[in-house]
């Protein structure tokens, strides 16, 4: 299998194109784990255990208290490859037509390559959004035999940051939504020293919150307790009690082997830091394909450009066949796992 360097779309041009393919608007988890690029395929995750210690008063000429250093742990995480390709049946037909015309216009061939590259890039974006959802659900990135690969990266979210409601929120008459959130915020503050900046929830969780008896009572007025409150009234109740706002309502579903699959479980509430990107990032490394482009000296592609997604046309055979190939190395990383708290509410 060889990269086609002299085709109608060169590898550096196709790579520049795939890197500009927009991420679907409903893939918003990169607000919590934004993209970062590395010139290696391992990333060092540094976890600093910071304690808000107090100095000590002393007598004049008395002994000075010596404080303790904060704990520092560094772990190395290896980034796995994620790739996809498509046989260009349409391209084969278009190449045949161009040959019949003695090398006529390649416009149709070029369009077919770009169309396939855009679709395949979308598949990479989809898989990485699924990976972000996996990490944000339990603090672990898990591959259980996907394409023969087994991997689990446990970023160490504290056990008391994976919690469940005492009374499920679907029991709207008796669930204590505000009391639950207050208790979880207290846990978050005890761990981090500051309050979470917001919550990410599903539309079903939002519906349970709007119909919850406790919320309706708190939002009530002299006119009586409403049967359901508005989103604005819910936001006001949260603000009144100093609780984190709802950052976004997330219900994205994607196709996985023909099955519609949620990126985040419908029953989870995520608590994230005031600056969401402090939580971590999506790491992109350097693929073997990118290194081929760097070392080939047949295209304008430097090592500094190597990190990130890459798109090329490859030829295999015999029988000879051309395919569009989009390649990447990466995974989501929780750099500060203590800043995530996940609650199961029904």
Question: How would you spell out the order of helices and strands?
Answer: EHEEEEHHEEEHEHHHEEEEEHEEE
Number of strands: 17
**Distance N terminus to C terminus?**
50 Å
Question: What's the mean pLDDT score?
Answer: 90
User: The biggest beta sheet, please?
Assistant: 6 strands, mixed
Q: Helix- and strand-based class? A: alpha+beta
Shape call: globular
**In terms of per-residue confidence, which ranges show pLDDT below 50 for 5 or more consecutive residues?**
none
Q: How large, in whole angstroms, is the Cα Rg? A: 26 Å
Q: What is the topology?
A:
Elements: E1 2-3, H1 11-18, E2 35-37, E3 42-49, E4 71-78, E5 81-87, H2 89-100, H3 107-138, E6 140-146, E7 149-154, E8 162-164, H4 177-192, E9 198-201, H5 203-211, H6 213-219, H7 231-240, E10 246-249, E11 253-256, E12 259-262, E13 268-272, E14 280-284, H8 288-296, E15 310-316, E16 321-334, E17 341-344
What would you note in describing this structure?
With 346 residues, the chain is of the alpha+beta class. The longest helix is centred in the middle third of the chain and has 32 residues, at 107-138. Helix 2 (89-100) runs antiparallel to helix 3 and helix 6 (213-219) packs across helix 7. The protein has helices at 11-18, 89-100, 107-138, 177-192, 203-211, 213-219, 231-240, 288-296; strands at residues 2-3, 35-37, 42-49, 71-78, 81-87, 140-146, 149-154, 162-164, 198-201, 246-249, 253-256, 259-262, 268-272, 280-284, 310-316, 321-334, 341-344. Strands 1, 2, 5, 14, 15 and 16 form a six-stranded mixed beta sheet that branches. Helix content is 30%, strand content 27%. The chain is built from eight helices and 17 strands.
């Amino acid at each position: 299998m060889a990269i086609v360097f002299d085709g109608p779309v060169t590898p550096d041009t196709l790579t520049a194109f795939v890197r500009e393919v927009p991420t679907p608007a409903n893939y918003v988890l990169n607000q919590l784990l934004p993209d970062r690029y590395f010139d290696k395929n391992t990333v060092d995750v540094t976890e600093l255990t910071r304690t808000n210690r107090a100095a000590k008063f002393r007598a004049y000429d008395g002994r000075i208290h010596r404080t303790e250093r904060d704990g520092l742990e560094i772990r190395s995480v290896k980034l796995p490859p994620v790739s996809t390709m498509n046989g260009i049946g349409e391209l084969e037909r278009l190449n045949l037509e161009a040959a019949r015309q003695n090398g006529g216009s390649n416009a149709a061939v070029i369009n077919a390559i770009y169309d396939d590259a855009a679709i395949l890039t979308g598949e990479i974006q989809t898989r990485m959004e699924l990976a972000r959802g996996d990490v944000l659900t339990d603090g672990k990135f898990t591959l259980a035999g996907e394409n023969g690969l087994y991997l689990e990266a446990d970023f160490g979210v504290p056990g008391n940051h994976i919690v469940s409601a005492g009374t499920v929120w679907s029991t709207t008459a008796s669930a204590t939504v505000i009391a639950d959130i207050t208790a979880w915020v207290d846990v978050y503050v005890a761990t981090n020293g500051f309050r979470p900046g917001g919550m990410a929830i599903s539309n079903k969780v939002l519906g349970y919150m709007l119909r919850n008896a406790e919320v309706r009572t708190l939002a009530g007025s002299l006119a009586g307790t409403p049967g359901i409150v508005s989103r604005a009234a819910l936001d006001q109740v949260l603000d009144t009690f100093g609780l984190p706002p709802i950052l976004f309502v997330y219900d994205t579903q994607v196709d996985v082997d023909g099955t519609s699959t949620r990126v985040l479980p419908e029953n989870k509430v995520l608590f994230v830091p005031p600056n969401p990107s402090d939580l971590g990032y999506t790491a992109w490394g350097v693929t073997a394909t990118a290194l081929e482009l760097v070392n080939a000296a047949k295209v304008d592609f430097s090592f500094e450009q190597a990190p990130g997604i890459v798109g090329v046309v490859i030829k295999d055979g015999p029988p000879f066949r051309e395919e569009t190939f989009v390649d990447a190395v990466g995974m989501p990383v929780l750099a500060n796992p203590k800043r995530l708290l996940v609650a199961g509410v029904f």
